[in-house]
Amino acid sequence: MVQVGPAEVNLLGWWRSRGSAARFDLFVRYTFYLSYIFLPPLLIIGFANEVSTVALAVLVATVLAYTVISFRLVHQGLEYNLGRTEFPRRILTIHLLITAAILVAGQLAYPDPLPGKPDSPGDGISVIFLVLAVTTYSAVLRPRTLILLGLLGGAWMLLTAPPGHALFISLMLQFLVAAFRSTLWMLKIVWELDRSREVRANLAVAEERLRFARDLHDVVGRNLSAVALKADLAAKLASRDRSAAAIDEMLEVRQIAQDSLDELRAVVSGYRTADLTAELAGARSLLASAGIDCRVIGDVTFTGEPAGALGWAVREGVTNVLRHSEARTCTITLRGKVLTMSNDGASSSAFRFGSGLTGLHERVAALGGSVTATPEPPNRFVLTVELP
């Protein structure tokens, strides 16, 4: 049985705790960083025997120092391209000046080819630092600027090295630009997808909260209005020594409260729907209890989600009639999938599109329908819900 140590467990847990975008981010960063580890030794070994030991030591030290500043520039460039920091203008300028100085110093130190060889050690130094520079700038600059720098690097090699070598180096630089920029482009897309997924999840949570608030408003709003109405009616009956009728009203209050509890449980469970036929019957009964003459014109000829949406419309309309008007008449007209509720006793100056109507609009809009709520002179209010 293979035993795993604490270090391996911590490393594995750290890796698993990172999302896919964060893992790909690490892959891209280490693709850049590993280039500084593997490319310079391979290129230095190629002409190590062509320079003195002192010159080789100076070259290795220069490469190490150059790698350090390149690491820093790559990090800031990646953060800039991901929109997390400002453009690293200062360190980029320093890096460009250092690169130019190294290229010129290499050619001045070794201007001529060695005997029996087509190129000089200065050409090899140019290749090393041009490759490192293009790798670094790929994390910072735009593709057009990178292509231009690659062409300038090829032109530099054309001035100092044989044409065949210069052409090869120029093509290699352009290949590095394409490879690293495409990787960086994919990294940006992965992070954007990750942010989109997070935004989508947050929107789903927000939508569910709105749904819950809308359902809670619809359920509690009308039922509490009914409880207040019934309780007030029972109090008036009791004051007139009509205790039997008052008891009946209070029993209805208890029934409404019990029904409200059941509906609240259904809302929490997320399965509550409004039945249009039941809502129409409930509207007629509740408005009659409030002394409002309610007429229902038309019949329910469909079921399913559209009927449920119109059921919520009836519920919201009745709530508004009880809360915000002194109505004496209310007419509910149903023609196909168009519901119209009209009542008198409304005040146009007090009209506002509240949370209940907003929630109803959201419900109906999800089905491709529309909601209009308008006051009409002199004191009427008309609610129209139309489904496709």
Q: How many β strands by DSSP?
A: 5
Overall form = rod-shaped
Instruction: State the helical fraction.
Output: over 70%
Strand order of the largest sheet: 1-2-3-5-4
CA radius of gyration is 39 Å
Describe the structure.
The protein has 388 residues and is an alpha+beta fold. It folds into two domains: 13-198; 274-388, Histidine kinase-like ATPase, C-terminal domain (Heat Shock Protein 90). Helices cover 71% and strands 8% of the residues. It has eleven helices and five strands. The chain has helices spanning 6-17, 20-46, 53-81, 89-109, 121-137, 143-160, 163-239, 243-269, 276-289, 305-324, 355-366; strands at 293-297, 329-335, 338-343, 370-376, 380-386. It has a five-stranded mixed β-sheet. α2 (20-46) runs antiparallel to α3, α2 (20-46) packs antiparallel against α5 and α5 runs antiparallel to α6 (143-160). The longest helix is centred in the middle third of the chain and has 77 residues, at 163-239.
Helix-strand layout with pairing:
Layout: H1 6-17, H2 20-46, H3 53-81, H4 89-109, H5 121-137, H6 143-160, H7 163-239, H8 243-269, H9 276-289, E1 293-297, H10 305-324, E2 329-335, E3 338-343, H11 355-366, E4 370-376, E5 380-386
Parallel strand pairs: 1-2
Antiparallel strand pairs: 2-3, 3-5, 4-5
Helix pairs in contact: 2-3, 2-5, 2-7, 3-4, 3-5, 4-5, 5-6, 5-7, 6-7, 7-8, 7-10, 7-11, 9-10, 10-11
